[in-house]
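Practice problem: predict the structure.
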Amino acid sequence: MSARPARASAVALLATLAALLGAVLLPATAAQAADRTVEGGRLDWGIKSSFQSYVTGPVAKGGFKLKGGAATAGGSLFRFHSANGSYDPDSGALQASFSGGVTFQGHQKPDGTYELDMSVSRPTVKISGGSGTLYVDVSSKAKEGGAVTTASQVPFAKLGLGGVNMKGGGSPIALANIPATLTDQGAKAFAGYYAAGAQLDPVSLSVDVKAAAPAAGQSASPAPSPSTPAASQSPQAAGQFTDAAVDWGVRRTFREYVSGSIGQGKWELAEGAQDGGALFRFPQGKGAYDGAKGTLDAAFAGSVHFTGAHLDLKLAKVTAKVENGKGVLFADVTTGTDTKPAVPLVEFDAKGLKTEGGLATLTEAPATLTEGGAQAFNSMAAFSMYAAGTEMDPVSLAVALDGAAKLPALPNLGSTATPAAPPAPAPADAAKADESSNTGLYAALAVAVLVLAGGAAFLVLRNRRKEAAATPAAAGSAVPSDSPDSTGPAGAGPRD
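Answer:
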């Protein structure tokens, strides 16, 4: 059979199928025209791994701190969370903002301040018309003179989207290893450590997309009947509360050690504890709070159990006490078969505890390990892990003081999307156009069938990471080398 009859047959079949499915496809197309809401997801980005290595290496002798629920995701990646924004499947336009941030500090001076001090937070990806830009909030100290500048939503990096088709996506939408190049504005915000055009670490993201709201005239989910009474709230005695949560990640490097190649372990949450990515939430808090005196006494539900090579540690029955601007976090500590009740694990700065509306909150209060906490960590291993006074992950508290108050939401990492290899590019030779058009017709038939069957659950977009070395803008002790620092010795225990 010649190619021409096959083409005619395919056209006829497609036309027939379109007529039969028109009633189904047209409403879907109409609904697709409206922007859809992005709710939940994550963005993984190392910013620039050689910069990380420089900051934490033997020259700058610094480190980084996470804030706003940001986490590490392995391979020098930082994970930003709780995406929100919009997506238009017709044009492929995407706008997604993520929460969390990271602060780099190095070259500490005698007065305790740092010559290198830079924060990057709230990354936002905007894609439209085949081009993309990554925006961030930046606070940085200039190399020369030390002037601090702060800017909101700086167009920090251009995203390399060559060959990526953003149209027609479902949920979740995933982009993997998208090349990122420093912009002119980004170079200025980067305090001059790198010149415009420098290659940054690639960006990967996954976001959940909610279907468009019903068009005018279409019915939506029925609203609750006005006559239906709201859920009653049990009265609380003055100063007493029955809904609170404490968020604490124990210690970032400890989590990385447990799940890494040395610890070869994991953690399990039970009794209501929740995983927020960079932190654990112990909920269902009950106790007493006096805003005038700044005192708190609360007990929480939940447990976390760390296991691995030479590792067995369980923390349960977490309690918190605050008085005179200082707080202590307690827990029952089980190592192996030995349980010690109400061990004071960390002390934290509680001067920021405040009451606003129906909530009392304390956000990311600095915390240090107590003597009892050091004994708990060191008793589970054959080596010394941490000494008293070691900086641990910060502590956050939230207390609902009345029945209408809602506790802060946990970080929303969205659904898991596994990017697959991109499809092979279309033939570039014009002589093959007629042959390839038959393939396109049959592909169109397959797409129509998938739409009818509810297929194509999500759009997966991948672009291979392009490795390129970038040269710092100028030489000097405060300028990072682009060669990764690998001088840190390997050890049995968790390291910074």
